[in-house]
């Protein structure tokens, strides 16, 4: 009850006209910046940080919360419409969202994404407000072995479950891990796989890989096809609302995605990428089991689940930031710097020393989620009109958009050239049916898996049993084993079902 009364006092502060205006401004700005490849919510907060010093602390952090939520959803817009994620947490949304857009259901894909963001954000913010202390204790139980186990679970789920061919999935995962180790090793200082090119010493950025594989690769693939690519059907822009069938297919993925995203925001270095990929894998596996899978052709479950997981992770990332002073995302790291600029130190005492600000911030997270829904849901048909542009204009604009987005991150012409090299790789992967998703998960989680494995082995002095020395790690590996076994059983059954039909064909021939 004490938490409820404190939250209500936070709403009293956040609902003042001035603070409500700052929250609205943050949501709008975050959404606008989130659609730009390579920028996202962290860049928006960083750029606006000097300007907010003119505001009093409560107003500044309320605006930051709006930017945080707006940026997370903004990346989904271009993922769905242009197959170009605004940030890495929107990568998975592009897989089914863009397929829905190409089949004339862009409005429904955007609506599923924004409602999923709303559901994940509201549930997760409620958890933050009432269960923050328990989740901080959960986060403290994670060490190097647990992080490595999480990475292995993501690797297996993506390479085996998400893709149709395990062999191609493993090859793609290997490509992603190989890309992730290019540059200087953070722990040993060794130079790896740079081929003597000094520009590669800092590695290949995730923005270059993401935009190159998804956006540039898709444009090149469509351009090299003899028919110039299948025509985009007319976009139904009359209503953003989901039909009863869409709602029936989406509400459980919203719930499952939220449940997957909740713990990952609390885990240091967890990020939104793992739960979004896991949510996609879960929904795809369930659709296969039901026998009515539309994955690969525009399954609304593949948009609803990952977007709910994305925003659930975004909200619970506030728990380690406020309770431990430990940021679990780039945006949270910038917000930590903002706290320090105002002379505050996040940690266990922050709720006591700066209680008014903290509870106003939590209340504004609720308001930001509601504003995100109210602003973006009615505009889904308007966004969908982008796909009515002539194909040559759309693809030319997409290439310009991708090039400017990548160049703006570092101001490097070399990165632009690298972008098109990665795009050529994406072209060949599409040509030979090699999946893109494992490459992306390998690039994102490869450094995490390597670093945590090294730390775990150093702590255990080379003893491999250190990797299974905790209940959390054993539990994660048990889930991994169940997933792998279920997939193996399914493949065996599929082969057994195909064998009689082949024999029948041979006999009739």
From TrEMBL:
Q: Name one Pfam family in it.
A: TctA
InterPro entries cross-referenced by the UniProt entry: DUF112_TM
Question: Where in this chain does the record put each DUF112 domain?
Answer: 20-440
The protein's UniProt keywords, in alphabetical order, are: Membrane, Transmembrane, Transmembrane helix
Q: Which residues cross the membrane?
A: 46-69, 109-132, 138-160, 167-184, 204-221, 319-339, 359-383, 395-422, 471-489
Can you name this protein?
Answer: Putative tricarboxylic transport membrane protein
């Amino acid at each position: 009850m004490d938490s409820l009364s404190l939250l209500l006092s936070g709403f009293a502060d956040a609902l003042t006209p001035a603070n409500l205006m700052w929250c609205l401004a943050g949501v709008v700005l975050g959404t606008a910046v989130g659609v730009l490849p390579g920028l996202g919510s962290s860049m928006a907060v960083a750029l606006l940080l000097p300007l907010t010093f003119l505001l009093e602390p409560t107003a500044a952090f309320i605006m930051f919360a709006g930017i945080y939520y707006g940026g997370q959803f903004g990346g989904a817009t271009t993922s769905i419409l242009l197959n170009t994620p605004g940030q890495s947490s929107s990568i998975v949304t592009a897989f089914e969202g863009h397929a829905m857009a190409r089949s004339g259901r862009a409005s429904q894909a955007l609506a599923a994404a924004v409602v999923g963001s709303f559901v994940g954000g509201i549930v997760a913010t409620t958890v933050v407000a009432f269960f923050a202390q328990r989740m901080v204790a959960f986060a403290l139980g994670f060490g190097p072995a647990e992080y490595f186990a999480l990475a292995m679970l993501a690797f297996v789920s993506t390479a085996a479950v998400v893709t149709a061919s395990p062999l191609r999935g493993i090859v793609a995962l290997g490509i992603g891990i190989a890309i992730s180790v290019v540059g200087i090793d953070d722990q040993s200082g060794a130079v790896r796989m740079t081929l003597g090119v000094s520009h590669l010493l800092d590695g290949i950025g995730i923005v270059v890989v993401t935009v190159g594989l998804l956006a540039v690769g898709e444009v090149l693939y469509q351009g090299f096809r003899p028919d110039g690519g299948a025509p985009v059907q007319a976009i139904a822009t009359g209503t953003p609302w989901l039909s009863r069938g869409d709602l029936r297919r989406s509400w459980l993925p919203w719930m499952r995605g939220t449940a997957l995203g909740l713990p990952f925001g609390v885990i240091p270095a967890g990020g939104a990428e793992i739960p979004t990929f896991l949510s996609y894998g879960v929904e795809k596996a369930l659709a296969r089991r039901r026998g009515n899978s539309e994955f690969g052709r525009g399954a609304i479950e593949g948009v609803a689940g990952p977007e709910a997981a994305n925003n659930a992770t975004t909200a619970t990332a506030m728990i380690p930031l406020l309770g431990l002073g430990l940021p679990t995302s780039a945006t949270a790291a910038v917000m930590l710097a903002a706290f320090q600029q105002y002379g505050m130190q996040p940690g266990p005492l922050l709720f006591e020393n700066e209680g008014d600000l903290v509870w106003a911030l939590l209340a504004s997270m609720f308001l930001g989620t509601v504003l995100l829904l109210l602003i973006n849901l009615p505009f889904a048909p308007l966004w969908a009109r982008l796909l009515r542009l002539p194909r040559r204009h759309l693809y030319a604009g997409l290439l310009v958009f991708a090039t400017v987005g990548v160049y703006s991150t570092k101001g490097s012409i070399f990165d632009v050239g690298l972008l098109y090299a990665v795009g050529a790789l994406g072209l060949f992967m599409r040509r030979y049916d090699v999946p893109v998703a494992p490459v992306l998960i390998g690039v994102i989680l490869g450094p995490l898996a390597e670093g945590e494995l090294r730390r775990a082995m150093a702590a255990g002095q080379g003893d491999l049993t250190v990797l299974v020395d905790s209940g959390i790690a054993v539990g994660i590996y048990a889930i991994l084993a169940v997933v792998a076994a279920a997939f193996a059983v399914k493949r065996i059954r599929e082969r057994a079902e195909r064998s009689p039909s082949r024999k029948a064909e041979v006999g009739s021939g």
